[in-house]
Amino acid sequence: MASSKTYTLNNGVKIPAVGFGTFANEGAKGETYRAVTKALEVGYRHLDCAWFYQNEDEVGDALHDFLSRNPSVKREDIFICTKVWNHLHRPEDVKWSFENSCSKLRVDYIDLFLVHWPIAAEKNDDYSVKIGPDGKYVILRDLTENPEPTWRAMEELAESGRARAIGVSNWTIAGLRQLLSFARIKPAVNQIEIHPFLPNTELVQFCFDNQILPAAYSPLGSQNQVPTTGETVRENRTLNEVAERSGHNLAQVLLAWGLRRGYVVLPKSSTPSRIESNFQIPELSDDDFEAVEEVARGRHCRFVNMKDTFGYDVWPEESK
Ligand SMILES: NC(=O)C1=CN([C@@H]2O[C@H](COP(=O)(O)OP(=O)(O)OC[C@H]3O[C@@H](n4cnc5c(N)ncnc54)[C@H](OP(=O)(O)O)[C@@H]3O)[C@@H](O)[C@H]2O)C=CC1
To answer: For the site Lowers pKa of active site Tyr, which positions are given (predicted)?
Structure first.
């Protein structure tokens, strides 16, 4: 089964190719605990978390309880990724964020620590999520204007051994070029939106060319619709035809496509049966792979709409 595949990061650390997404936007209390428990029971060994998701405590409790019930599984068998949020980019805040995540996740090291976005937002004194007067984040600056202080703090965490690997999320080719020009420790991963409506092919290739492993968020197309047609990835007729003839469900086909393209996939579900089936990922035949590639070719529908959320377009070159 393709689900047990692992990759080796540019510093030699191994990462399971399938990670469980934990962003339960507006999820009810306890939803993340139940979902992560189910995921660990089904066999996922990679959890994708973030300080911003405000549910690391539930992930930590689920992990702690699972390990207590299953003494044959050790902390080091589980790969944990988490991320520093936009208003915690000052070097001292990066460390604060790291410690805060460790404490909520009930772990003393993180396997992969990422800079969540290449933008810095206004900082709130109590570190709660800052929303501006019009309900939007207050963006202060593009981190790529000077990512060096933030990245140096990330490098210190890696050098201390508390973060086994460090990386970024939502970075463009231009941003990565800049980061690579001064990084003492290269980013190991760039976590970005990838599905057939936003294959991000150029950025993915740039990452591979620079030994940065891409990780696909929203690999099932999230819940979003193409603004112009209203279509979701999971409603696409061709993709559903591929699923039908392959004998697998569409989510499995989408995940298999991502694994065959060679990167990490991070599906999220709060539904027990889907958590289970999303971890049963087949190998795609050449024909089925080509059919999904054909849907993907030339498509560029960015679902995480930065302009609406942040009033700022983070990925100008890829999102058009
Ligand atoms: N770095 C970043 O900026 C970002 C990172 N992420 C990460 O990526 C993860 C996944 O991304 P996300 O946006 O949640 O999108 P996904 O593409 O994983 O889609 C999740 C949606 O698909 C549904 N779903 C899951 N499995 C199936 C299935 N088998 N059949 C039909 N529907 C299904 C879920 O419903 P239900 O839960 O009801 O089953 C949910 O509504 C996040 O949880 C987070 O960890 C996401 C966004 C941004």
So the answer is: 83
Task: Indicate which residue of 7, 33, 44, 53 is catalytic.
Answer: 53
pLDDT tens per residue, range 45-86: 999 999 989 999 999 999 999 999 999 999 999 999 999 987
Look at residue 146 and tell me if it is in a domain. Answer: yes
ipTM surpasses cut 0.90: yes
Catalytic-residue membership of 53: yes
32 lines ligand 1 (CB under 6 A): no
Residue 128 lies in a domain: yes
Q: Which amino acid is at 8?
A: T
Atom of ligand 1 nearest to the CA of 23: 43
Question: Would residue 58 count as lying in a domain?
Answer: yes
End-to-end C-alpha distance for the chain, whole angstroms: 36
Domain count along the chain: 1
Distance from Cα 221 to the centre of ligand 1, integer Å: 7
Position in ligand 1 atom list of the atom nearest CA 192: 1
| Beta bridge partner(s), residue 112 | 81
* 314 Cβ closer than 6 Å to some ligand 1 atom: no
Domain that holds residue 29: 2-310
CATH code at 221?
3.20.20.100
Give the CA radius of gyration of the chain: 19
**Total length of the chain:** 320
Please indicate whether residue 292, judged by its CB atom, sits closer than 6 Å to ligand 1: no
**CA geometry: angle 195, 198, 200, nearest 5 deg:** 100
pLDDT tens per residue across span 104-136: 999 999 999 999 988 766 655 555 555 555 555
Closest CA to 320 of 295, 293, 302: 302
Residue 317 lies in a domain: no
